[in-house]
Design goal:
InterPro entries: DAP_epimerase_AS (IPR018510), DAP_epimerase_DapF (IPR001653). The protein is α+β, with helices and mostly antiparallel strands and about 290 residues long. The protein is built from 4 helices and 19 strands. Strand 17 and strand 18 (about 270-275) form a beta hairpin. It binds ligand LBFN2T5F. Ligand LBFN2T5F binds near residues 203, 221 and 224.
Length: about 290
């Protein structure tokens, strides 16, 4: 089976072109192929597939975290799927329509001097910020004055975290802090991901504002742990900041692996712009 290693600002996945290859058990494959010591290495596995027959789209993305769990969406991944589909000659449409677990998304892209996709703007659709739909279980948290913001408590240590909940098709909790680098993400991340308030677990983001249009964020991803970037997460961060009155509707987000631009426009849709990069190709198993 041929694979391609790609990343969106350091959020790296092993990609398989399902127009050419068949993957029997993606949940199992994700765990072994994404292993950074015994496999190719990555934050998970992403498949480029034909769209379902009853869906109007150019192709389909399925994404699996490194623990084998499937997520509805991956913002950095969908930009790379767009690049893979275009650069391999599978889809040439621009804009391109990609079926995901969060619906059919529209992506517009620019090409580099060699005619390969370099930067992609994704219409991420309308964010969801009704707590029950994220989903979160309010009975396990303390309410605040904002309907989408709750206080979470660690029962063992008594630590409190005020988090704003937004779904971009997948669930995100954003915690605003004065210094993002002071957070012990390795300790706190898994405890928040698996908090009883989150029936489907949770992607966790700590965010520091520099100004109303510039933030730095660090992420603990559901099913993958610490990653260098999260595109759905950055989108949720932008929306959470607007809901909490902390930032403008258009922001620049600095993530450990690079930058994304997020724009929550008048049409109610969130637009994310960033790069997509191919690193190498190979055969699995060798
Ligand atoms: N890194 C991704 C999100 C991947 C899925 C996430 N871990 C989940 O389980 O929802 C992104 O760029 O959005």
């Amino acid at each position: 089976m041929q694979f391609t290693k790609m990343h969106g600002i350091g959020n790296d996945y092993v990609y398989v072109n399902g127009f050419e290859e068949t993957v029997e058990q993606p949940e199992e494959l994700a765990q072994v192929i994404a292993d950074r010591h015994f496999g190719v290495g990555g934050d998970g596995l992403i498949l480029l597939l034909p769209a379902d027959k009853d869906v109007e789209a150019d192709c389909r993305m399925r994404m699996f975290n490194s623990d084998g769990s499937e997520s509805e969406m991956c913002g950095n991944g969908v930009r790379c799927v767009c690049k893979l589909a275009h650069d391999r000659g599978v889809v040439k449409a621009n804009p391109m329509k990609i079926q995901t677990g969060a619906g059919v998304l529209t992506l517009a892209y620019t090409l580099d001097d060699e005619g390969m996709v370099s930067e992609v703007t994704v219409d991420m659709g309308e964010p969801i910020y009704v707590a029950e739909q994220v989903p979160v279980l309010p009975k396990h948290m303390k309410e605040t004055d904002e309907p989408h913001t709750f206080v979470l408590e660690f029962l063992d240590t008594g630590e409190l975290f005020t988090a704003t909940m937004v779904s971009m098709g997948n669930p995100h909790a954003t915690i605003f802090v004065p210094d993002v680098h002071a957070i012990d993400l390795e300790r706190i991340g898994p405890k928040l991901e698996n908090h009883p308030a989150f029936p489907n677990r949770m992607n966790i983001h700590f965010v520091q504002h520099h100004s109303p249009d510039e933030v730095t964020m660090r992420t603990w991803e559901r099913g993958s742990g610490i990653t260098l970037a999260c595109g759905t997460g950055a989108s949720a961060v932008c929306v959470s900041g607007v809901l909490d009155g902390r930032n403008d509707k258009k922001i620049l987000a600095h993530l450990p692996g690079g930058d994304l631009t997020l724009d929550w426009r008048e049409d109610g849709h969130l637009y994310m712009t960033g790069t997509a990069t191919e690193v190498f190709r190979g055969d699995w198993p060798e």
